[in-house]
């Protein structure tokens, strides 16, 4: 479901991030908007408020650190942390946005207090309701006169988006007004279904470029790569997939939004080769392969693609544990395993094989009704697990 046009640059990416289930469970990946003064960052966020969506705006620089960490109060000989009034304003089941405006004016003490609020969603010992998203806004570093640079730990807790208003959009707004943003609806079950696929693709890229797991905060003005922001990237890619924003499509807006989100997580120096890698992946649909509707030439796949393919096949097999197709799918899978072993690339798929073995796959196959297929599959599995190199690998990782 594409989002409406006629929004400022960065707005579509912002709305997707706020609607994305986060790796920690609640809704929304924290977003930090960077833009010049007067380009409508605050107006757009506050304009999202409605009957079922509360927006609370706090200017961090005029608040004490205890407004974000809780005020210690001595009660009955014990220190307790009083919850600020702004936390109680959010209802438990109510959608909401905590908007931290002018974040770059916050001194280091306030930034330190915000660390737990932004990522752990805690104010003292009080958790924010699950449907409260967090957005911040700041002026770019070259316009931060009298401001403070954000610490790397705080920067790493956000997806960073550049916000601007094209001249044509402003001219249009003079006669037609501004388009109001609306959070898209991302079905959690559909997101969970797609998330493992994107995690596997990220793992395949990191196998090729292990140094990409981390990038230097000093070499990136905004976002930079870390395990946390790679988790953000996986969640956002799954969300874009649910909404129909696909890599390699002819939709220029989709390509722009994907670049904004991934660069906002990882920094451009890491995001660009990662997106190029995703565009070059030659991975057929695992369901088509296992069902025999599509053949795959393993010789044509490099090691990274082979790694991604087998994890994808694993996920599909596991999803079929209670289905009658499991036996036929498993025979196709085992044939592909034999091909990989014959090519001398068994080390590439060892982790996939180990994980599948631990999933209960073998016991499911052993209980299959069709005797001929069951016996054939069990013979192939016995041969596979008798491979000395594979057994050594499993023993090491056990």
Structure commentary:
It is a single chain. By secondary structure, the chain is of the alpha/beta class. It contains 18 helices and 9 strands. It is 50% helix and 11% strand. A 5-stranded parallel β-sheet has the order 2-5-8-1-9. A two-stranded antiparallel ribbon has the order 3-4. Helix 8 (188-208) packs antiparallel against helix 13.
Contiguous runs where pLDDT drops below 50 for at least 5 residues: none
Side by side, the strands of the main sheet go 2-5-8-1-9
Q: Helical proportion?
A: 40-55%
From N to C, what is the helix and strand string?
Answer: HEHEHEEHEHEEEHEHHHHHHHHHHHH
Mean pLDDT: 87
Which structural class do the helices and strands define? alpha/beta
CA gyration radius, whole angstroms = 25 Å
Topology of helices and strands:
Layout: H1 11-19, E1 31-34, H2 41-46, E2 53-59, H3 66-69, E3 71-75, E4 78-82, H4 85-88, E5 95-101, H5 108-120, E6 122-123, E7 126-127, E8 132-138, H6 152-155, E9 159-162, H7 167-176, H8 188-208, H9 227-243, H10 252-266, H11 268-280, H12 286-290, H13 303-319, H14 326-342, H15 346-358, H16 361-366, H17 371-385, H18 388-397
Parallel strand pairs: 1-8, 1-9, 2-5, 5-8
Antiparallel strand pairs: 3-4, 6-7
Helix pairs in contact: 1-10, 8-9, 8-13, 9-10, 10-11, 13-15, 14-17
